[in-house]
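Cross-check.
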Amino acid sequence: MYSNKIRLLLLLPLLLVSAAAQCADDDNWRFSGFATVGASYSSNDELAFRSSYLNKPGKHFNVLTDTMVGFQFNYHFSNDLDLVVQAIAQDRGDSEVANYFEMAFLRYQFDRNWSARVGRMNYNAYLLSEYRNVSYAYPWVRPPVDFYLPTSSVSYVDGAEIQYRHNANDGVWQHTFAAGKSESNLFALDSFTTIYYDYVLNATTTYEAYDWLVKVTGSYFMGERTRISGGDFEGFYDSLLAVPDVLWPGVDEVYDHLHMDNEPIWYLSLGYQYNNDEWLVMAEMVAMDSAWTLLSPYVSGYISLGYRFGDFLPYITLAGIEETESSRQLPVPDFSQAPDAETAQYLGLLSFASQEISNAISQSQRSVGVGVRWDVSPSSAIKFQYDHYWIDVPGYALWGVSLYQQVSGDHMSNVVSLTYSTTF
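Predicted model, tokenized:
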């Protein structure tokens, strides 16, 4: 797996150079790219660190956590119509070529205020929506995982978006509304879950003036279904349905809790940014409500403060995520009704697995991070960052664990990272 990823990371730059050469003679084409090379070390022996649900987690030393290369092509058919394609090669857990394309849309500018996009678009819900994968564009080694990792369960929307921009009070208002479908593969150490969203509705309002910006987002998702790979979950669900209620009172409740189909998700976020070329302040908070066991309701947020000294930008970030509902204790079998010891043992295994699956989606942790960014050139930067995490078990869903792995006791982890990022 690693060798395939590395080959792809090495091959894509060669393809980009070739494509850029083809574009050089055509003024309608515009080519740009970005890349990050990094290394990180996580101190926890049980929980594997990751920066996105879409990427495979890894324990201890890892050179692929933040490493990626991407390109973007713009082609202008006219002054009003253009095509945008963005693709990224990184350590994704799946190998489907289509999933390496973050954006592929047509955009039409009706007039100076109104525009529309159709195709695959970024999920426009937070401050970094337009450049989340472009490490050079933000101060940190990676966006704060307490806030941004859960949002990676939706990385794109296949559909359409309408946008309205207008000037007011010495600033610019921007309003967008998008509708479409989406699909995500969320990876653990030895399994992955595919979430199919039947439809996604997303509305944003942004106001930008001088040195500051405020953004408000509201989203509604309808989760169509899930597919969990890496274990015989269909057989597991069938086993739950086959247990008589007399042996396990409430087994139907357990099944409904774990079997996730056709459930809504609500998302509301607020972001603020101030940047006067010396001081940098960024803060975001989000509340998510969901009827899906896989995506438990939570609130999260962060605040980051930095001050620039010439080419150096030291910063500190405080972040956290907490569930808004306590981890659910599922009904247990009535072992006194079991006809023999073998049946009682079988029921115990089913009950244990059910509770572990429910616990595995709990999210509860806090973190503090300090780092420094050094702008070595107008288009490249070196970043060093140290993060300390406090994880409240069973709130370890942001970390990678093995299927049915039992994690007990609260955990801490130190993550040290060094990256080089550039644009071209």
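The first strand starts at residue 29 and ends at 42. The helical segments are 2-23, 145-151, 233-242, 251-258, 341-359. Passed to J.P. for a second look.
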